[in-house]
C-alpha cells in the first residue's frame, strides 16, 4: 500500500519551496510516504473552511488506475488543459534573489507558430562522468555555453534569459490565459516532467545552433549509478563557462557521495559511502516498483486550467529531483543557485540534472511498455510557449513530447544497477534504530514525554477498503493508495507527521 501525505503551508513564499519540501519529507519516517507541498497563499477562504486540517474520507481512499482523477479538483476547475500565458502580462515574480524580476523583454506582436519538430538523426545524450574524457565534445559544450553567455542580455537565447524562463514558470510571473487570476506553476503536478522536457529540448537545440552542430546533446548526471553519484567533474573547473560559484562546497568537491534523501535542515548523513550508494539505489528501485502501475505516483497529480491552488501534487520522481537541487545549492543564502527555483537554471548543472530526470521518465515509460501515462486531454493538450532554435516563438503540446524520438533524441544505454537484485533489507544497526524511534513515537502519541509536540491528540480514522484479500496479480495491476490531504503547517516551521497504518488480521 502506498500512502500519499498532502500538506500545505499557509502563506509560504515559493522562494524556498525546494528546501521546505525536503525538510518536511525527511521528517516523515514512514516508508513509502510522499509529502506534498506548495504555496497555498492564494487559496480562497471558502475552500479553506470546507476542508478540515486532516481530511481523510471515502473519496481519498483510492484503488486503482484513474482513481486520483477528480479527487483534487477544486470548485474553479475548468476541466480544460492549461494554456500558455498572455506574454504581454508578466508579473513581478516571488524571487527575492532576483529582486523579483525575471520577466523577459516583451516583443509586441511577436507571432506564435507551430513548432516544426527537428528532422535530425537521433541524437544521443550521454552520461556526464563519461563525456568528461571526450575532449572534443567538452570543447564544443563549453564553447556553446560561452557563446550563450556572450549574447546580448536581452536576446531570448542569452544564458540568463534562458535561466529566467524557469523563474517565470515557477515563481508566478505568468498567469493562465483562460483563467487569468491563476498563476502558472510547472512543478508539483503532472506538468512537471513534460514542461521540463521541452525546456531542456529547446535549450539543447539552441546550444547546438550556436556551435552549428545539429548532433549536439547535453549530458545527463547519471546519479542512479555508483560512478555518477558525485557532483559531475565537468562543472567543477572555475575557469570554465560551466562553472557556478554558488554551490555547497562541502558537496561538490572531493567526490562526496550524493544523498538522494538529502534534506537541508538535517545533518549530513553519517553513513559510509557504500551505504549511501546502496540506499540511493534502493530508494530508486522502490520508487519505480511502487509507482509502475499508477502514473500519478511517479509523475504527479492532475492540474487543470483554472485550478485556483497549486495542487501540491508532485510525484515521487520530483521529490527525488528536489533532493539533488537542495544538495547542490549554496546553504548560506537562499540555497541559490540550484536550491531555489528562481535561480536554479543559472547553474549549468541544472540541465545536466534534469537530463537525468528526463531519462528516468523515459525508463519509466519503457518499463510500462510505452503506455501513455495519462489518457486525458487535459494533460495531453496542455500547451506551452518557447523560443526555438530559429528564434521563433513556438507553441508545443504535451502529447507531442511523450516519446523523445519525436524530438529526435535518445539516451545512451547504461547499466541500471537499481533494476537488478540489491539487498535493500535494513542492516542490523539501522533496524534497531528504527525500532527505538518507533517506540518513542508511540509514547509521544499519548503525550507522555517531554518532547511531545502536539501529538497529544492523535487522530484515528477507520477507512473502508474497496477491496480486500486481493490476489498477487491484482496487486500488481492496481496499487492501493491512501491519500491524506490538506495538512496545514504554519510558514517557516518544520513539522513532522507520523502515520501508522494498521490493517486488521486477515484483511491483507
Ligand atoms: Cu523546475 Cu528541477 O526544477
From TrEMBL:
Residue ranges of domain Tyrosinase copper-binding in the record: 187-204
Domain of life: Eukaryota
Matching Pfam families: PPO1_DWL, PPO1_KFDV, Tyrosinase
Record InterPro entries: Di-copper_centre_dom_sf, Polyphenol_oxidase_C, Polyphenol_oxidase_cen, Tyrosinase/Hemocyanin, Tyrosinase_Cu-bd
Family in the record: Belongs to the tyrosinase family.
Keyword check for Disulfide bond: yes
GO molecular function: catechol oxidase activity; metal ion binding
Organism of origin: Musa acuminata subsp. malaccensis
Keyword terms of this UniProt record: Copper, Disulfide bond, Metal-binding, Oxidoreductase, Thioether bond
UniProt key word Nucleotide-binding: no
Protein name in the entry: Tyrosinase copper-binding domain-containing protein
Required co-factors: Cu(2+)
